[in-house]
Amino acid sequence: MRRTPPRRSRADPLPIFATRHRGLAEELRRLGRSLDTDATVLLLGDQGTGKDRLARLLHERSSRAAEPFVKIDMGALADDLLESELFGHEKGAFTGAVTGKPGLLEGAGAGTIYLDRIDGLSLRGQGKLLRLLEERSLRRVGGTRSTPIAARFVASGPSDLLQRTRKGLFREDLLYRLAVVTVRIPSLADRRADIVPAARAILRSAGGPPGLTPAAERALRVHPWRGNWRELENVLLRAAPEARSRGAAAVDVPHLALVSPTDPEELLRAAVRAGWTLRALTDSYVDLVLDDSGGNVAEAARRLGVARKTLYERRRAGG
Length: 319
Description:
The chain is an alpha/beta fold. The chain is globular. The strands form four sheets. Strands 2-5-8-1-9 form a five-stranded parallel β-sheet. Helix content is 43%, strand content 12%. It folds into two domains: 15-186, Rossmann fold; 190-316.
């Protein structure tokens, strides 16, 4: 029997995503009304806008919260392994299947299955996913027994998924199957009124100081935020420890001046004036290149002029 977790007022079902953006606020209210339904949800937005965060929040605020939350990166699944990875396989189902293996979907129970980067699936893979959503049951490769799927499906994709559909890059029937409830998350640059409140919320969750200097507020409002929420968090989580170490009541972000100069030498002079260490400068630049490359390590390594192994080792080291 599914346990119902304690929740706040249903009048504000998704408080962490509070916004002054009229369109987003309306879509979040509609999403809130679907919290405890089986309706499939499609989250659309650019890199770093918070799709993962919203998917997990939707799960945690629903009556499925006590059940598993299973995130699957669809862009990382190869076509020839798609069914085996998702559904599992029985012993001897194919060459190399020396033992049976459960699929990623088997562990979801009555929880939430989050299909991240849905646009990463090939057209062939999209067809297989469509059948899964229509039948709502799974059968291991090489198996004979079908198991009903009780979990709710939430998917995420880029803001231009509809345009990709019109170009024939994404199946229209799958789009409509996924988009029973759709939330389009605008970039931070299109939600300027949300930036400072969001920054204060991030600082509170990080243990403060919760305040921002007037200069910091001005800088946050005009910054382009190409990395969206992820970039905002990165900036503040770097600035907060420095403010704490100085005993400051408010956080400043002087290093955001780095975004205005276009001459490389002036960029470095701005970094010197801001007191950046070489490690901080390197970490920030590598993170920005990774974000701008959509998390593609090979592409980021090419742009940085380093070996992929260097970035993988950096990630394992927590750098």
